[in-house]
Amino acid sequence: MRKILLCHGLRQCIFVLLMLFVITNSALAQVTIGTGEPAVEGSLLELKNLENKTGEEANANKGLGLPRVDLTDVEMLYPMFEPGYDKSVQDEAHAGLVVYNVNEDLQDGKGKGIYAWDGESWVFIGGPGKILELALSTDQLFLWENSPTGEVTLTAKKDGLAWEKSVEGDIVSTFESVTNGKVSTLSFTRSETVFGDEIYTFKLVDKPEVFTQLKVSNLNLVLSKPIIRVGSGSVDGAINSSSIVTAYGGGSANWEVFDYDRNAFNWTKEPKNVNGHLQFELGVAKATGVVRGNIQVRHLDQPEIVRTIVVEQNAN
Prior knowledge:
By secondary structure, the protein is mainly beta. The chain has four domains: about 10-45; about 70-130, no CATH class; about 135-220, Sandwich (Immunoglobulin-like); about 220-315, Immunoglobulin-like (Sandwich). The chain is about 10% helix and about 40% strand. Strand 11 (about 175-180) and strand 12 form a beta hairpin. The longest helix is centred in the N-terminal third of the chain and has 19 residues, at about 10-30. The N and C termini lie far apart (about 125 Å).
């Protein structure tokens, strides 16, 4: 039998035992990888390669490279285990496992990126995600008097994917498209006579279940009465009308009172929008004869769309 000698003599044996004790305790202690400095108190493992850095200072100029794994199912610990593994044992035991998934077509997943196993399934943490087969640069486009045209890009996952469009709602714009490779530039021009909202639906010809939608709003603010004549009090001096101000785009009530002549009248009820109704009430006139003042309203989706209502008290 071959003998393995760890030490020669008592002193050398004591030294070897001390070294084994130190190594064992180090293995059970907190660890820093990258420098010889100890890990911070609350950390089992700390990664850094810049010394004498504390608090919020940068303590590294390199990152942590997670293992790149080809996940195939968000509810399976594969390829860690072969199909048919004992989920009742392994799933919960591996809670907290973190990987970088390289499979863009991960079943029920969100494409490439960082995933963590929560004990039941892979949870997407972050990353580029899934490249949609058909995607718009925005899902809302506003057109109005000072911005009568607008562009949106429609991007397909790859060249050659044919798409078609359909429109619902008021026809408030005209449409043109120019396609270059995977990207189509969609150009819209507002109607000068029809206002409101329309929904464009773009879908793949060969896969109609793949679609995306764009809401185009041709905004306007219309006054049915640019001049309102009132008296005073809760009857003759009160206004409660849903027809004086009408917003187009986002609904008829999509407007607000943002300014009015506070000193022109004795306002017993200040002007405001109440569920699409312009409401206000005037008290006794501040002067004899006709008293005039203004109320200014604006569109909520485009505050630059402003209209002025003239109020005349005792004009009759």
